Task: structure prediction
Amino acid sequence: MPAHLFREIENLKREILTLGAMAETAVRDATCAIENRDEALARRVIDDDIKLDEMEVQIEENCLKTLALHQPVAIDLRFIIAVLKINSDLERVGDLAVNVAERAAFLATQPPVDISFDFQAMARQAQEMLKRSLDSLVNLSAEQARAVLRGDDEIDAMNRRMYLIVQDAIHAHPDQTESLIHLLSASRHLERIADHATNVAEDVIYMIEGVIVRHKAEDYRPQADR
Amino acid sequence: MPAHLFREIENLKREILTLGAMAETAVRDATCAIENRDEALARRVIDDDIKLDEMEVQIEENCLKTLALHQPVAIDLRFIIAVLKINSDLERVGDLAVNVAERAAFLATQPPVDISFDFQAMARQAQEMLKRSLDSLVNLSAEQARAVLRGDDEIDAMNRRMYLIVQDAIHAHPDQTESLIHLLSASRHLERIADHATNVAEDVIYMIEGVIVRHKAEDYRPQADR
Result:
């Protein structure tokens, strides 16, 4: 690889990991704001989203510059395309963290709701998937990426459980309907954050192996097993 | 432009418009299934999604092949990157149409709910935005694309109104809570479909003008106005 291209790719890797860290922080703070009824923290997540947006635009511009100037091929081309896609996903994770934070800001002003759903367990699962998808990118590990894909069913099941619990809670406490609907929204935002972590993991696998694994359940196994 | 690259780009354009038409059909059928309580139509949308998934993978592979073989620059490079991104958005529109269809399949089995919300008006707005974003791609018209961006606030407002109406309806008819929550979900899926139409329009503007308009409210105006 020419030295210039190598430097650009190292730079892109640094930038996308920075954006990943920013997205992780936003998700963690937004879910903490729900747990601790912390309106100020929620507001900070909302205000800070502009930094993620700026970073996303910068990364996309750098990807395009690198494609135009260096015309990379093979793994380098796949790396840049993967960064372009991961970039969009991380920016949307930031938007979803803002959505969770908006719910947190509202819930902090209302009497606490008491339901038998472990929201924090779901938040941890979403954060864990996001963290692992970024680790798989740092380590260029298709194996770590495949572990992320397997976590997605679990969070979908949590979200479905949340639905049923909220429905029952609305029947039991109709006066808390508004808060319960907001909590349900937050749960769905977490599920979508996990979806984006899954997308990141799929892009990492694609980058490493040159195989598109989307929509193929059987491809969750490592290549050697197929 | 070399003849080979020209042919590849024409082919990509044809493919992405085909995917767009498939996504439009899925959204139209899913919302019709809600309106007409048509479970069979809902099931068809769900079953047909695999065709959109396959088309998405094919388009992505063709984009990457074109990048690797022809190393396009300037507008051609931007075109291919835009197709890559629009491709992801259209595939997700298909997924959201499936989500709406799942709600439709459930609602068809329940007694009808009567709320003062014009769901079909919201469905029409989402479909209109999707159609216009694809028209802006066919016609390579930044002006048409900017009109799509302006429609997004309207659908966000509709979704917020839906929230309030559903909340009141749950208080008035607690026995319909489940159906009402499903209807609220469908409304949010429509809002996300409109978001993806907005993404498509932004990518069309980027392709034509080489300007990233995401996160910049002031850039909704045509360049000449700035």
Q: What stands out?
A: Chain A touches chain B through 32 residues (CB under 8 Å).
